[in-house]
Each structure stands twice: as structure tokens, then as C-alpha cells.
């Protein structure tokens, strides 16, 4: 499949529904994409808008492993009907392993009824209640159900109103529950009090939880960071921890230093999110020192932390020694060309990194050229995001030349919102003629004219690997271009 995203995509500031045009030596009819199709599989059953509460039992009796009733305005009454069905001791109902009830206006009453059913159910593995109206009272009932339930592995409560008291109720049951592996609590106004309780349970008795999501609770501060750092020093099961999104308070330097201390000895954590936590250069340096010792972290998110060139350099130096990090996000940190040059140096020797995001960092031509130089020797990077970096043709052409000559691993490149013009587009076109691995190229919101876009369209006549090309919001009329779908493609998707 080959896709061209045109400049008319954003008419009136809104994205238009995509259409499919099949190439057949002429203009054929267009078929609107049904937005539900990507979610339909043979193991999922969705409630259509025409079905009523009386049809719930039929859905559970279809023998499907997942029942998805999200976005259906069920409310508490609908939740009661669902609970009545999935609490039945029936061999067919027992085949349902995942129940999704997200975005349904379910409140505490509905949560309590679901909790009663969950307490006796011994087959459900995943319960998703995100984007509802559940407070600490409803969560307390669900926590009590986990005292007796021995099968639930995933509980998602994101975007509710559980607060510190709800987090404390869950923390208390985690000390005894031995089956829950994923707990998703982002967007719940949980502060230090709730995080300290959760951290204590991870530090002392819980030995099963593998994923704890607490991002975008907005009010977690350094005390919460310190508590979680202490838990990381001794916990032997947690694989993913996300504390991102606390712009009001932030973990700050003290909290991050304690987390970094925990990382030095932790041997299980693989993914860590610390985005938007005001850690600054000093916090980044502490993380960098920890990454030099840590041998398990594979993904770390540090964007929007104002770490600057100094912090980026510290992280980059750790990358030169670290052999496990596969994904690094340093976006929106004002690292400049100095920070980008340090990251580029790390790329020359690092043999693990696969995804790198440096978007919105003002790295300019000098930083982009350094990255391009590293791409000629790096053999692992697959995804490079340089969105909004004030890169001109000097940096753009350097990246294109790297794609043309020696790089054989990069599959996705994002140069959206820079200052690229036709010289870069011409170099990219030349690279596309020979490059055999690039699958996605984003060049939207630059200054590419008709000459550059035409060269790219011509290169696509022979290119056999590019699947997604974004050229929206440039200085050219996409309707005047003749994009010819290569013989190997299945279809064009053009947004108009």
C-alpha cells in the first residue's frame, strides 16, 4: 500500500475523512473508509448503536474472547445489566477474557455492581473502565473485589476521578493480590499521597505487578518520586513505570535523583516515562549516570523537561556505554545543535537504539548534519523524528544523502515543520531511487515547490519500499502532480 497525504488534508483546520482511490490507468470511484473496520476482528464483538440492554447476553454468548461495549452511553443501569450477564456461571460466558466498558458514563453505582460480579468471576483477565465517572468510592469496591478474584491481570481506570483515596485502596489490596499485572491509573488527579501508598506496596509485599501507569495526574511531586525511587531499589517485578505529566509540581531534581538511584540497582524495569516533570539539566545528568549502570531499561521518555544541551550531552554519553535502550525521546528540551551533536556521536557507536525522537529542539542545520553523518555508520536506528527543528536545505540534503548512500536500516523519517525547499526534495528524490528500506517519509509544512514535488513523484515510479509519503502544506498543488503507484503497491490512499 502506498499513501500520499496532500496539502488539502487540512482544509479549514480540520482533517477530512480519507478516501481510497485504486490505480487502474484512470480515475475510478472512491470508497469512504469505515472508521470501525480497523477494530473488527474475529475475536472481538462490538455492540452496535441499534442494540439495547436486552441484547447484552447474546453478545456474551457468542463465544468471543473479547466483548467491547465502549462508547455506548451505558451509564450505571447499563453496567448493572452487563454485570448480571458476566457473573453467570456459564461455560460460554467464561470464554470472555476481556471486557471493555470505556467512555460510558459509568459512576460509582455501576462500578460497585461490576465489583460484586468481579468478586465471584474467576475467568476474566482484563477489565477496562477508562474515561468514566468513577470516584474513590467505586474504586474501593473494585479493590475489595480483588481480594477474592484470582484471575484478573489487567485493570484500567484511566481518566476517572479516583484521587489519592482511590489509589490508597488499590495500594492496600496490592499487598495481598497475587494476579494483577497491569494497573492503569493515568489522568486521575493522584498526588504524592496516593503514589507513596502505591510505592510502599511495591516496595514491601507485591511481587506480581509488572506495569504501573500514572502519567498525567498533574500533581505528583518530589515526595512521590522519592517514594517510587525507593521502591525501585528493591522491587523485582515491575517492568513499566510512567510518571509523566506533572507540569504543576514536577518530580523536580530531588525526586528524579532518587528514581535514578533506584535505577542503578534495579534489574527488571524496562520502560520509564518521566515526561514533563521539570527535571532540568541536573535531573538529566542523574538519569544519565544511572543509565550507564542499568542493564534493563529499553525505553525512556524525557521530553519537555528543559534539560538543555548539558542534559542531552549527559544522556548521550550514557548511550555510548548503554547497550539496552532501544527507544529514546528527548523532544521539546531545547537541546540545540550542541545537544544534537552529542546525540549524533552516541549514534556512531551505539548498537541498540531503534527509535529516536528529537522533535522541537531547534537543532538547526549543524545538528541535522551531525545526525546525518552518524546515520552513515549506525546500523540499528529505524525511526528518526526531527519535526520542527529549524532545519534548512543544508541539513535536509545531508540526511537525504545518508539515505542514498550507506544507511540500510532507517524506515521512518519525520522532517515535518522545518525550512526545507526544493534542493532537499531533489536530494530526497535521488535517494528514493536507490534506497530499499525507507517506508515512511514526512515532509509536510515545509517550503517545497512544484519542482521538488515532481522529482519525488518521478522517483516513486521505481521505488518499491516507500508506503507513506506526507507532502501536505507545501508550496505546490498536489492535484497537478502525477503520482504513479508502483506495480508492487495495493492501493493509493489520498486524503482530499
Structural account:
There is one protein chain. The protein has 15 helices and 20 strands. By secondary structure, the protein is α/β, with parallel strands linked by helices. Strand 13, helix 10 (308-321) and strand 14 (327-329) form a beta-alpha-beta unit. Helix 3 (108-120) packs parallel to helix 4 (136-145), helix 9 runs parallel beside helix 10 (308-321) and helix 12 packs parallel to helix 13.
What fraction of residues sit in β-strands? 5-15%
The main β sheet shows up as: 20 strands, mixed
Radius of gyration, CA atoms, in whole angstroms: 25 Å
Oligomer: single chain
Q: Count the beta strands.
A: 20
Describe the secondary structure blueprint for this structure.
Elements: E1 2-5, E2 19-21, E3 30-32, E4 44-46, H1 56-60, E5 66-68, H2 75-86, E6 98-100, H3 108-120, E7 126-128, H4 136-145, E8 154-156, H5 163-174, E9 182-184, H6 192-204, E10 211-213, H7 222-234, E11 240-242, H8 252-265, E12 271-273, H9 280-293, E13 299-301, H10 308-321, E14 327-329, H11 336-349, E15 355-357, H12 364-375, E16 383-385, H13 393-404, E17 412-414, H14 422-434, E18 440-442, H15 450-459, E19 468-470, E20 492-495
Parallel strand pairs: 1-19, 1-20, 4-5, 5-6, 6-7, 7-8, 8-9, 9-10, 10-11, 11-12, 12-13, 13-14, 14-15, 15-16, 16-17, 17-18, 18-19
Antiparallel strand pairs: 2-3, 2-20
What tags apply to this protein structure?
36% helix
